[in-house]
């Protein structure tokens, strides 16, 4: 059953990545919060609880399935997100959108 979930998740994750990267151009610059990251969580996990477990905060954003923007302190924030249950963690910086906006 797990293999079936993974095979079905690949197209969904690809779509979320393609659409989610467009949201990164609207991400605030890392300030006191630390790194701003695009976080993909599995559908059976709550994104806010994964981010809180890693010591970060969920940033305000338009709703998107599975993908959210989070900010957190320290260079190991991405690793803490993965340990808390995130599937993928990507740097979210202005200009990373599909059109370079």
How would you characterize the overall build of this protein?
The chain has 101 residues and is α+β, with helices and mostly antiparallel strands. The protein is 37% helix and 18% strand. The protein has one domain. It is built from three helices and four strands. It has a four-stranded antiparallel beta sheet with strand order 2-3-1-4. The protein starts with a helix and ends in a 10-residue tail after the last strand. The model is unreliable at 13-33 and 95-101 (pLDDT under 50).
Number of helices: 3
The portion of residues forming beta strands comes to 15-25%
| Helical content band | 25-40%
CA(first)-CA(last) distance: 40 Å
Helix-strand makeup class: alpha+beta
SSE pattern:
HEHEEHE
Task: Summarize the structure in short.
By secondary structure, the chain is α+β, with helices and mostly antiparallel strands. The chain contains three helices and four strands.
Features:
3 helices; single chain; 37% helix; four-stranded antiparallel β-sheet; disordered C terminus; alpha+beta
Strand-helix topology:
Elements: H1 2-23, E1 35-40, H2 47-53, E2 57-58, E3 67-72, H3 77-84, E4 88-91
Antiparallel strand pairs: 1-3, 1-4, 2-3
């Amino acid at each position: 059953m797990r293999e079936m979930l993974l095979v079905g998740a690949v197209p969904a994750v690809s779509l979320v990545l393609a659409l989610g990267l467009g949201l990164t151009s609207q991400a605030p610059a890392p300030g006191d919060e630390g790194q701003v990251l695009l976080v993909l969580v599995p559908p059976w996990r709550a994104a806010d609880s994964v981010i809180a477990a890693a010591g970060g905060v969920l940033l305000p954003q338009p709703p998107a399935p599975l993908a959210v923007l989070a900010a957190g302190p320290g260079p190991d924030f991405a690793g803490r997100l993965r340990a808390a249950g995130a599937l993928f963690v990507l740097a979210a910086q202005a200009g990373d959108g599909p059109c370079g906006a």
